[in-house]
Structures are given as structure tokens and as C-alpha cells.
Amino acid sequence: MHSTEISNHRDGSNGNGTYFWNSLRDTIGRNPIIINGMDVRTLLPETWLNDSIVNFWMKWVGVPQSPNDLASQVYTFSSHFLSSVLLNSYSSDLKRWLRKINIFDKKLLLFPFHGVGHWSLVAVYNPSLIKQTSKRWGDASYTNEVSCMVHFDSLGRKTTHNRSDIAWAIRLVLNSEWDRHYNTSLDKTSRPFTHRCLPLLTPKVVCQDNSFDCGMFTCRYAFNAIQLLKKRLTMSDVHNKLKCYVSEDSLFDFSKGDITRMRVEIHDILASITDQYRSHRDTSEAPA
């Protein structure tokens, strides 16, 4: 049902095409992702996606098509980031990944995660509103937007991912970055991201019925998570475990056929970018 939206994102039809392609070049220039033939072959039917394809997609959906595009409010992490935090804590090497950005300027943070042969996605909405969220936690009458952490997992309750560990790692990063930007006293007791006011919510979503589509579902969840920015996320939504905000939203009414078509669409996107690159290279190398 939403294939048209994805296709439109491919050619910039939702906004200014020139702005889109310039944004794409800027994004790729700052964060190059090398994709070879072996990577592309993971888009074949009944094949697990590898990290190169997933990371490409995360960057792709994060490229704004216009100055006010939803994607301009999103920061997408590499799939290697969260697994590295779980392995080495939030080390000085990992902190350098964010040295030039304030993640609290964004309304949505996306953390793709791969572990135990499975892909899933964590989305953190409105991280800058954590103080307000903490003060009004539990007050369903509070109608302003709130912070929220969501786990999208195509295995549902059968997930092989340790949700407690994932939530701990993300809160660790958020608190550390909050210290860097706002907590000049470095008083650890004032770190706002806690289990109480930023629990990991797991709304019911459509799940895979095979052993190979978890990467594709993660890509689809990422696209949907960005589209959800069109709606306000309130304390009432949190109290209802995101039933209306996520589970009953038409974005998540997609089928196995939609996932299969998405493999083709991602392949077409890569082909389109390749054509753009070749055209740009040929123009640049043409004699004056």
C-alpha cells in the first residue's frame, strides 16, 4: 500500500528533486557506505540482508527531500554502533562518532541492531523532551509531546534480542550525551534517562513468517517510524502501549508481498544512484 511513497522517495517526487540529490551527495560524502555485488545479492529473494544494505537504507530514508522534510528531524545510527556499545560500553572511540552533532536537536533517533542472527530497530522519539516527560510521567491528561523509546522487532515476543540490555545501552548513550551538552556539573543523579521515564515499549506490529526477512522488516519499520513523526506522541499514547500511535496505524498494515516488492525497490534505488554517479563522473571527467 505504501510502495508509492517509497518509490517517490527514490526520485525525490515528494519534494525538490535537486535539493534531494544534493542532500544525498552531502550525506554520502560525510558517511560513505561501500556496496559491492555481494551486498546487492543479499536483496535476492529468501536471503538475509547484510549490514551494508541496511546501513544504506538507514542513510537513504534519512536524506531530506526539502528543508522541512521529516527526514531532517532524524538521526540514524550505524548498525555497528549499538552492538559496539553492548560490547565495549560507551567508549571514547564511540563518543567520537557523535562529536560533531547534538542528537537532542533531532525528533527521532534510529538504532538498527543486529545480533544472534537477527535484525531489529529501536526508535527514540523526542529525546530533548525527557525532562518534561519525567516531570509529568504517569499523567495521562498531559497532552504535550513526550519522549518515548520503541522496539520494532519482526519476531515479536519470540525475539532473540535481549531487550533489557538494548534499553540499558541506549540510555547509557543518551545520558552521556546529555552530560556533554547540558549537564555541566556532571552530577550523575541528574541524568534524566531512566527505566522509569524511558522504558522500552514493544507495540504489536506485523511480523515475519519466515527465517530470512528480519532485515527487510527492519528497513520497513525505519521508513514507518519516520512517517509517524507526522503525528504527536503523547502520554496517552504511552499509557496505551502505542496501540493507536503504532499498532493500529495503516503504515503497519503491510503484507509479505509488500516486503518482497521492497527488495526490488531497494535494488532499483541502488541502480538509480549508480546511474547518477556515472553521469556525474562522466560530466566531471569530460574535457573542457
Give a nutshell description of this structure.
The chain has 288 residues and is of the alpha/beta class. 46% of the residues lie in helices and 9% in strands.
Report on the architecture of this protein.
This protein has helices at 3-11, 17-30, 37-41, 51-61, 79-88, 92-95, 130-135, 163-181, 214-227, 235-239, 243-247, 256-285, and strands at 74-76, 108-115, 118-125, 148-152, 200-201. The mean pLDDT is 88. Helix 8 links the parallel strand 4 (148-152) and strand 5 (200-201). It has 288 residues and is an alpha/beta fold. Helix content is 46%, strand content 9%. Strands 1-2-3-4-5 form a five-stranded mixed beta sheet.
Based on the model shown, name its key terms:
globular, alpha/beta, single chain, 12 helices, 5-stranded mixed beta sheet, 288 residues
Topology (elements, then pairings):
Blueprint: H1 3-11, H2 17-30, H3 37-41, H4 51-61, E1 74-76, H5 79-88, H6 92-95, E2 108-115, E3 118-125, H7 130-135, E4 148-152, H8 163-181, E5 200-201, H9 214-227, H10 235-239, H11 243-247, H12 256-285
Parallel strand pairs: 1-2, 4-5
Antiparallel strand pairs: 2-3, 3-4
